Amino acid sequence: MARELRPHGVVYYSEDTHYSVTKALRLLQIRGIKMCSQKNGEMDYGDLQRILKLHQDTPALIFVNIGTTMKGAIDNLPITKKTLRDLAISEHNIHCDTALSGTILPFIDSAQPFGFDHGADSLSISGHKMIGSLAKRENITGIQPAGGCVEYMGVLDTTLTGPVPASRRYSFGTP
């Protein structure tokens, strides 16, 4: 979705991001820049700021981990948003990979913010753990459908892996 909205954007992700992200970037032919992680697996915000500063004129597509695979680290979405504001990078998208912790955090008191209400533009949740991917409706309405209309489902194919049948869609507030 972010590539369609910002075709010249660069994806920024930490070294603790799941390996499938670099594979997806290669398959989708999107430029990506790997940044350092802290010892706990959380992104290194100083490195994020340093790298973004070098590329301020390019749309930033930030990949935020909400529970890394090996360490369970949760990147800080408010710090990420503040970094973008401080560098005056207005053309950006933030994707939160909530594969590990996204199905748990909504039920934890004082959980770290990670959803649409806190600045995420899209979320992914592992299908084998719960469900698929979420995005704000306003961000996908203008995207040319990747595979046109899937007639037997009656929906547009707007994702890499195909649409989710209506019987398997879930509501997470007002995306």
Question: Would you mind describing this structure in some detail?
Answer:
The protein is α/β, with parallel strands linked by helices. The protein has one domain: Aspartate Aminotransferase, domain 2 (3-Layer(aba) Sandwich). 21% of the residues lie in helices and 18% in strands. It is built from five helices and eight strands. It has helices at 2-5, 20-28, 45-54, 77-86, 137-140, and strands spanning 10-14, 32-35, 60-65, 92-97, 122-124, 133-135, 149-150, 155-156. The strands form two sheets. It has a six-stranded mixed β-sheet. A two-stranded antiparallel ribbon has the order 7-8. Helix 3 runs parallel beside helix 4. It is globular. The chain starts with a helix and ends in a 19-residue tail after the last strand. 28% of the residues are buried.
Percent helix, as a range, is 10-25%
Cα-atom radius of gyration = 16 Å
Overall pLDDT score = 82
Query: What is the CATH homologous superfamily assignment?
Result: Type I PLP-dependent aspartate aminotransferase-like (Major domain)
- Domains, number: 1
Q: How would you sum up the global shape? A: globular
| Structural class category | alpha/beta
Strand content: 15-25%
**Distance, first to last CA:** 14 Å
Total helical segments: 5
Predict the CATH topology: Aspartate Aminotransferase, domain 2
Strand order of the largest sheet: 2-1-3-4-5-6
Using the 3D structure, state the CATH architecture: 3-Layer(aba) Sandwich
CATH class: Alpha Beta
> Biggest β-sheet: count, sense, barrel?
6 strands, mixed
H/E element order: HEHEHEHEEEHEE
DSSP E strands, number = 8
Low-confidence stretches at least 5 residues in length (pLDDT < 50)?
Answer: 168-175
